[in-house]
Amino acid sequence: MVICISATINNNIVAGQNDTIHIPIVTANVALVIRISSTRDASVIYLGKRLQNDADYASIPINNGNNDYTGLLSSAYTPSGTRNLLEPAIQVIHADGNPSLDLKYVRHQQNTTNQPNGVLLTTIYLEDPVYPFQVNLNYKAYYDDNVIEQWTSIKHSETGVVRLEKYSSANLYFASAHSYYLTHFHGDWAQEMKPEQVQLTAGIKVLDTKLGTRADLFQAPSFLLSLNQPINHDDEDQGEILSGTLAWSGNYQLQFEIDPLHNLRLLAGINPYASEYSLVAEQEFITPSFLFTYSFSGLGTASRNWHRWARKYRIPQGENNRLTLLNNWEATYFDFNETILTSLMRDGKRLGVDLFLLDDGWFGNKYPRNNDQAGLGDWQENIKKLPHGIDYLTNTAEGIGIKFGIWLEPEMVNPKSELYENHLDWVIKVPNRPEYYFRNQLVLDLSNLAVQDFVYNTVDSMFTKHPMVAYVKWDCNSVIYNAYSTSNPHQSHLYIDYVRGLYNILNRLRNKYPTIPMMLCSGGGGRVDYGALQYFTEFWPSDNTDGLERVFIQWSYSFFFPAIASCNHVTTSGEQTLKFRTDVAMMGKLGYDLVVSQLDTDELLFSQQALQIYTRLKDTIWHGDLFRCVSPYRLGSDIASLIYVNENQDHAVWFTYLINNRYRAGSSRPIRLKGLDPTKNYRLQEINIYPGTDNSTIINVNKLSGDYLMMFGFDPMVHSQRTSVIIEFQLTNGVKTLTCFLNNISRYFLIVFYVLIFS
Ligand code: GLA
Fold first, then answer.
1. HSE-up of 215 (CA within 13 Å, CB side)?
2. Residue having the nearest C-alpha atom to atom 6 of ligand 1
3. Using DSSP, how many helices (H) and how many strands (E) does the chain show?
4. How does residue 72 score in pLDDT terms, banded at 50, 70 and 90?
5. By CB neighbour count within 10 A (0-12 exposed, 13-18 middle, 19+ buried), where does 525 fall?
6. Is the CB–ligand 1 distance for residue 407 below 6 Å?
7. pLDDT tens-digit map of 335-367
8. pTM to 2 decimal places
């Protein structure tokens, strides 16, 4: 693979017409091609399926006909204040007050130095011909996974401060389709990731957030762009789709502009709203990354590209293990003490999970955290609830044989807290106006270094003082109202410096604790992005744990994020059976949040067995490929169905859920499976069967070929009496033996061959 990339590097400058230069940024299947014109303007001339011969990009006609008055419609980074007529990627006011910018190509380089295997970094250096102002466009191509990461760095050497009014991460151009369909994901608390698809029409469609923290509460920074036809949830294997996301945990802005030529301009970056940035000479302003994958075989491929890429390059421990856990939030809320927690830990052990997670409510003394109105920020054990402190709990957990984790919300503060009383200057709040609260709390000013130290120390001392704490759930429940910092000399830097401050803290923590598992939570899924997920091993998708709701919520997240990172907990919420809720939770990282002692004998037995079965399945769920077979978003769909297949295609786990309770709703006909090896024979076995309902006919269904299963299909017989079904696929013994035999034969021939050659 690396060899491929090196070859690409050697060919990367493609000579074109009239002294143009072409810079192809390529992965296995995708090419983004930047043309440098004879006037040294950089434009995106191609984004799509990689051509077999890089030299062909030079044949793409110059400019989009004669109607681009400015020559900037397809700019790779559109400046403003000169001849541009449309939405800019960058807008600046120079130190002398001049509000114009032009950007001309200086040079570029492509190399694999200091990059992980299979990654090529391209940097294109641009400069204003009049002012000493430079912009570098960076593109990282992840070859095998067809993901491209793009960010920009901005710098100048003017005398004085340059004001950055806009500073996009990416500026892409699509000229190949006749229509564009945007699927975006909006929602609110407990309603995360509701997809909505619109056809883009002339003008600009903007997806953005101005919430500061918990930034994705109403809208996720992830989207799907389908070319020429809407996304068809009936068929995940068809269609040309760009799936994009901004790796930034604060205010973002994604703009989709259909230009006068009916082409699409895409601008993605930090939201410039209330965020003019003063840049001093020689300081580098580095934007967050915009990431995209491009698929020519539908949404399924796009998702698998993300999953593989994220596990390999982004999420800590993405290719390793995770801990199953029992959380006490929905079991106790704020109402617990040592005795209750001890018995919950014992329950966790009895259930068979790896870890007990103590949630909110364990801290605060002057203002005890007995509800969400007080105590936030005072990270000392509440002596009434926990008279013997955290160490007592970790020791108890150790004695029971279960690991221990804890909830923190270190970026936030209740006005009723000692932290607020002692450090009012650390709180984000505007002078001369009444405070306004979100969940009775305010946000700490992470643009302040002292506050960064406080937050870092809160988490660090949890680990140093209590070395047996094995897991942290990091919450962030509040948005930023009344944005104002008492210490930041630039109010308009606050939103940006906040997120950078957060990342500084997380970086320091990850340097010291590279492997500790941490859950990213934000009042549910208010902060699920690949900026934060550089530091967190997993995320909490939603406070909505109703099994039926979770099918939809988890489904939407799976377009972008891998199953290993999705914390799915079985709770008592909703009308569904325990089996249904468990089967839904198993499609990601399984956990529990209920009172185990309230389960009856069958429920407990079922849950214990489910965890044992999960131990056998989890490698395929966490590290295998996901194929969604029947979408719950399909019009009139009664079911949702998905399968995970491991890399060798010798093990698969297939989940099907009933999502409609109308009369006779169900699976009713075979579902075509995906991702199997057509040449292999599989044994199908229904698993996770509830005690006493052992009437499944899907017991050791032997020798169905992958070909048959993918072409004809199989009916899991999901209906109102069987609302969820999990079927495990293993190779039939015959095939296993045959495979072994063939492997041995080929090994034998290889040895003979070597002996003959070298003797
Ligand atoms: C948020 C989280 C929940 C729980 C509570 C505790 O709402 O999403 O899981 O931790 O906070 O207050």
1. 28
2. 360
3. 13, 36
4. very high
5. buried
6. yes
7. 999 999 999 999 999 999 999 999 999 999 999
8. 0.94
